[in-house]
Amino acid sequence: MSKIIGVIGAGTMGSGIAQVAAQCGHSVYLMDANVEQLERAKTGVSKSMDKLVVKGKFTVDQKSNIESNIHYVAGLEALSPCDLIIEAIVEKMEVKHAVFSALEKIVSSECILASNTSSLSIASIGSSLEKADRVIGIHFFNPATIMPLVEIIPAVQTNESTINEVLTLIESWGKTVVVCKDTPGFIVNRVARPFYGEALRIYEEGLADFATIDWAMTHFGGFKMGPFTLMDYIGNDVNYAVTESVFQAFYFDPRFKPSFTQKRHSEAGFYGRKTGRGFYQYAEGIETIEPIKDEIIGKIIFERVLVMLINEAVDAVFMQVASVKDVDLAMTKGVNYPKGLLAWADELGLNWVLDKLSNLFDEYGEDRYRPNALLKRMVKNGNKFY
Ligand code: NAI
Questions:
Q1: Is the pTM of the predicted complex or chain greater than 0.90?
Q2: Residues with CB under 6 A from ligand 1
Q3: pLDDT for 171-199, tens place per residue?
Q4: CATH top-level class for 4-179?
Q5: What are the boundaries of each domain within the chain?
Q6: Tens-digit pLDDT profile for residues 211-234
Q7: Which segments of the chain does DSSP mark as H helices, in order?
């Protein structure tokens, strides 16, 4: 019998996750404390399903079956028959603790209790449970209906059967699943930091403007969007908050230091597309800013950001956050990087990457640029990632 899935929080993520589960034939209980939000979620799911019908992915009958599989509920009690519950409410530990602790009194002892948190520790969320071996992180990417990647994060309390059950289930939903340690930013939000941070730093040094840095990354790197376009898309408020939380969570490691430029843009309300202005202006009639297409400068910018990204990917492997394969999968399937960073490093030559980083480290004398010990070791031993 198909498992019954509960989702708490019918916002951006929760409604997408509920839709994914319903599309895979599950009966889903989508709960939100805000009744109006439940209505909005219902309309949102229906519109999203309409698009899938137009695309030919589902028939009209299937759409109506899928929609009737989702039960919109306003109280936690309705989640009592669930086998797995994924929480996607506000990113506040005390609220999550209250919800998990209340939930445990309602569900069976076998029910797996998961969080879609982007930045909080799964171990801490689990500490509110009596039976904490069933807590786990199941981190979807936005929009959950489209993005293929899901990071699975076992906490120190999680037992093997919970991990295996969740892996099998989420894979059966057609998602690309990676497993990672319960550490700040998991894989994607940790490894991707230099894409934004180093680009901002390059701008702050006056080496190039936003448009030129974006051009360098798309032209030489094949990234779908440059860092500033992407930050405007994500929202400077959201992206800055993630950077700051990762920086704090890593005990203020200078590798993750946030940027004043982004902070000021965020403080000014220049969030990006959603407010009509971020690093760029989006009002109609505003001329687009042309990059200065200097091949030499462009290449310097691209290579500097890329080696910083690779260094971070290497660190995730070195610190056993995830396997080589999963780190590369996470970046290609979670944030659409054109290549896995470790495969890219092999292709460029690890000694070339190490040279670039060592030059930056020598020039700046900042800990931010220190080459990873695993990279040094691999170069010394003539090893490759694949
Ligand atoms: P959102 O603000 O769109 O939705 C949160 C929903 O939770 C709201 O509808 C709110 O009414 C409801 N809620 C709040 N407290 C509640 C409670 N005590 N009981 C029941 N419902 C409650 O938030 P969003 O963006 O969907 O994020 C939810 C979670 O997913 C957060 O933990 C976030 O870190 C994580 N996440 C967000 C991503 C994103 O791009 N937005 C990506 C991946 C994870």
A1: yes
A2: 8-14, 32-34, 37, 88-91, 95, 99, 116-118, 140, 142
A3: 999 999 999 999 999 999 999 999 999 99
A4: alpha beta
A5: 4-179, 190-381
A6: 999 999 999 999 999 999 999 999
A7: 12-23, 35-54, 60-68, 93-104, 122-126, 160-172, 188-191, 193-204, 210-219, 227-234, 236-249, 260-267, 295-318, 324-334, 341-348, 350-364, 373-381
